[in-house]
């Protein structure tokens, strides 16, 4: 049994995510986790909310809530929606957890011991009215270049000129609007990533099986221009992990916190400790996933993320781990995604454009979305959600192909043989041909799933459903029954067993439909079909079943038009 550690990029806390976010990491990660569990492997699937940083503070202020309370509420909401989409995390943690505080401080201490952290004195804008330092992007003023009055301290959005906050004319706080600002000196810690360049280079070179796209992105960041730069890991904020060296205070860094980019990926690890603590497990139980000196040597670690996150996962986080000098498990495979666009434009959280996860579940069950999103995953290029395509895909693949097969065979059986698997007859050459085709296709499906080729996997699964339909169409038990009821019985027996086979194979994509089918078949045999012929005899003659409700309802033109209108504007 293989042991597979899976993490999905952790979503930021400040709001509900849209379907583009979902298909960019959490959903394909869930597909892979479910597949590996289905194959009988041991899986640890972790995700969490990313809760620190100024955007969380500002979102909390906007909601008129203390930031800790705001994050707790948003975490509960995101967690509930994840359950709605059947995302099967072993734990959905929080980067603000005490476990992540301790581990982040631990890593900082180890990096300091290794001489990889240096102090830098910087000038930063302090707002008296807000009682805090302001990050560059939270200072607004008039652009010296084009006169735009709402230019940000890091860049003018109008003329795209890169700016320093001190360049702005009439600068003011974007938080409070106050102009009572002052440039002050402040001290920050920098992680000396430049010193880790050779180690990172060698590590990336050792990844012979990574896609070229991934290694080339990493190499570009590592070598282009001045190469990998040292990076600030602290901030003058209240909300975050207090700066400490392990358990000890860090003289001169009082009142400061670690920068969110530093603590967020450490939560991948801390999340496992959260899982252990929440489930009465020991430290050894989570460390066997993360420490190569404590059992993680044979673990395969796979990360899922959007393409914009690749440099971060190939350089920044590995720099933290390598720099610590400790034997932490590092990533074996990265699976990254392009963007999903929405109906001729982009999904936009800030503009509320597109379908958001909570809204999606209000109008249709999760499986409809899971199937469309995964079968159209933006793998080799961006892909686009349109309501027409969604309607067509659901109606054809789910309703016409899979749903119709289930409905025909169960209803025909009930009317001619009653609600149990019929006895009599034998499987003949036609059935053997189907078994041969299914065997070939199922092995191909496994190969695509193992390689995390999401679209190819969906295509193969669909072809497996189609093969059953084609068999049923040509076997035509409803005609055969009149002449040779024994033969029809064998055909129906095969068909009912095929439903169970489909339920097992389809679980990674449409887990709720799998549950419905297994309940209707009165079976809990979810064993993966290593031997297809044996799998198609799993339900013996006499085994009772019930005809399931309509598995997938078709989307009508009226519904499609209504949703198209409803989601065309801005989210209120
Ligand atoms: Zn400008």
UniProtKB/TrEMBL annotation:
Q: Which UniProt keywords apply?
A: Aminoacyl-tRNA synthetase, ATP-binding, Cytoplasm, Ligase, Metal-binding, Nucleotide-binding, Protein biosynthesis, Zinc
Q: How does it assemble?
A: Monomer.
Chief localization class? cytoplasm
Location of the Methionyl/Leucyl tRNA synthetase domain? 4-409
Does the record carry Membrane as a key word? Answer: no
The record ties this protein, via InterPro entries, to:
Anticodon_Met, Met-tRNA_ligase_1, Met-tRNA_synth, Methionyl/Leucyl_tRNA_Synth, MetRS_core, MetRS_Zn, Rossmann-like_a/b/a_fold, tRNAsynth_Ia_anticodon-bd
Q: What family is this protein classified in?
A: Belongs to the class-I aminoacyl-tRNA synthetase family. MetG type 1 subfamily.
Its annotated compartments are: Cytoplasm
* Protein's UniProt name: Methionine--tRNA ligase
Required co-factor?
Zn(2+)
Motif extent ('HIGH' region): 11-21
The note on cofactor binding and number reads: Binds 1 zinc ion per subunit.
Q: Which Pfam families match?
A: Anticodon_3, tRNA-synt_1g
Q: Where is the Methionyl-tRNA synthetase anticodon-binding domain?
A: 421-571
